[in-house]
Amino acid sequence: MGKTYTMLEAARSARASGADVAVGYVEPHGRIETERLLVGLEQLPFLEVRYPRHPAARVRPRRRIGAAPSILLVDELAHSNLMDGEPKPRHAKRWQDIEELLAAGVNVWTTVNVQHLESLNDVIAGITGVRQQETIPDRIFDQADEVELIDLSPGDLLQRLNAGKVYAASQAAAATEKFFREPNLLALRELALRRTADRVDAAARAYGNRERRLKTLVGARSIFGGRDAG
C-alpha cells in the first residue's frame, strides 16, 4: 500500500521542520524508492546478533532510549522478533518493544496492515482462507494518538505488485494468485475503511464528552464560586 514510503515522506517533512527524527527499523525490501527516502535520515546503530540456524550474523536495532529522538520510526508493528539469537531480544513481539519505547517517553511512528488486527483474525481467515500468524492486540491500535489510512484501489495495488514494488518479482505472481486476489483486496479495503471510521467516531464522541464536562464545570463554578465566579 506504500505505508513505509508514506511514513518516510512524513518523517523527512518533520525533519525539515526541525523535528529530531531517527530511524529505528525500516525494511526497504530492496525498493529503490524507499531506500532513497532513507538517505539523510539518522539511522540508529545496529546490534550484531548471531543465529544458530543461519551461518551469517544478522542485526537488529540497538536501543538508544537514553538519547531518544523526538520521533522514532519502527516499521511493521505486527512482526515478531526472532528469539533464537544471541543476545536475545527482551520481547517476542515488536509491539512490545514499542510499548517500552512509549513508556520511556519516545514518540513512535509505525505501520501495520488491517489483517493483523487481532479482532479481525477470524474475519480475515474467512475471506482470504489465510489465517494471520502475527497479530497485534486491538488496544495497541486504539491507543495510538493518530492513525492515517493509506488507501489504494485494488487495481492500483495489483499494479504495484506486478511492478515489484511490494514483493520481489519471483514472489509477486504467487501473491496475486493467493492472498492478493481482487475480491480479497476489496474486502480488506472495506475493513480498513470501517475500522478507521470507527476510530474517528470514537474520538468524536470522546471529544464531545470532554466538552460537556468542561461546560458542566464552568456552570458549577458560576453557581458556587461567589464573587470570584466571573
Unreliable stretches, pLDDT < 50, 5 or more residues?
A: 221-230
The percentage helix is: 40-55%
* CATH class bucket of the domain at 1-111: Alpha Beta
CATH topology of the domain at 1-111: Rossmann fold
Query: Describe the biggest sheet?
Result: 4 strands, parallel
Q: Could you characterize the architecture of this molecule?
A:
It contains eight helices and six strands. The protein has 230 residues and is of the alpha/beta class. The chain has a domain of 111 residues: 3-Layer(aba) Sandwich (Rossmann fold), CATH 3.40.50. The protein is globular, with a radius of gyration of 22 Å.
How is this structure best summarized?
This protein is of the alpha/beta class and 230 residues long. 46% of the residues lie in helices and 10% in strands. The chain has 8 helices and 6 strands; from the N terminus they run H-E-H-E-E-E-E-H-E-H-H-H-H-H.
Features:
single chain; 230 residues; alpha/beta; Rossmann fold; 4-stranded parallel sheet; two-stranded antiparallel sheet; 6 strands; globular; disordered C terminus
